[in-house]
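Why does residue order matter? Because the sequence determines the fold. Keep that principle in mind as you read this record.
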Amino acid sequence: MSRINRIDADLLSRQRGWPRTLGILALGLGILSSFGCQMQSKKGFGPGLSGVRTILKVRSTTTLGPYLAAHLELNDQPFDAYVIPSEACRDVFKDGEDVTYVDNGPQGVYRRGDARCQGMGVGNLVIWRNRRRHRMRTPVPRTQVTYRKIYQGDQFALLRGQFPGVGHIGFSNTYDLVAVVPVGGECAPLLDQINARMEYRDKGSQVFSLVGRTGLCNIHGFAQPPPQVPAPELPNAATGSGFDTPNGSGATPAE
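Structure:
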């Protein structure tokens, strides 16, 4: 056989093998997809894969302004789900019962039996941040945030406004979000302000914090705004530089 004929035969053999290779790849992807949809965990949230399910225990529920706050437990760690206080959501979050979180959309869906409730937000951002596989390799600049206080209770206040940078942990529409912050400590003097600096940490016990004069106000959670409630009037966030650190670098160490 001539060299040209050998090359033609080799190419033909490879072409005949392509359908088989593609078929194997398609089968593998189908199996992985099916596995992802049925994956269920009591250990922790999956890495943001659509359809992955996580089982949580309901400890109690409280009212937090326009939200129903469901206080849950995941592997002995506290976790809050913020939802609309509808009859369907109250039916899902019964004290002492298990609920299934289905990773579907920005804040997922909670289910118990046939009842389901759309998530609006989460509290305990450490758990939410750590579900991601990757970590930042460089320091993250502090950002300028603007907000108005829309609710204050005995323990938490709600600040609605623009929080650019929250996309780091999977939130969308960061220019109209509600931050859940404690009412005491370093947070107290920030509640009635209309702007502040926000810091993000990729590791450690704090995720997002508002920067106060003497320390950090740890943001407990974030939620999408309640439906049909117009956003408050805010100042222009662009009036500041958007970056501020003691060393002037504009970067926050990731610890």
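The radius of gyration is 24 Å.
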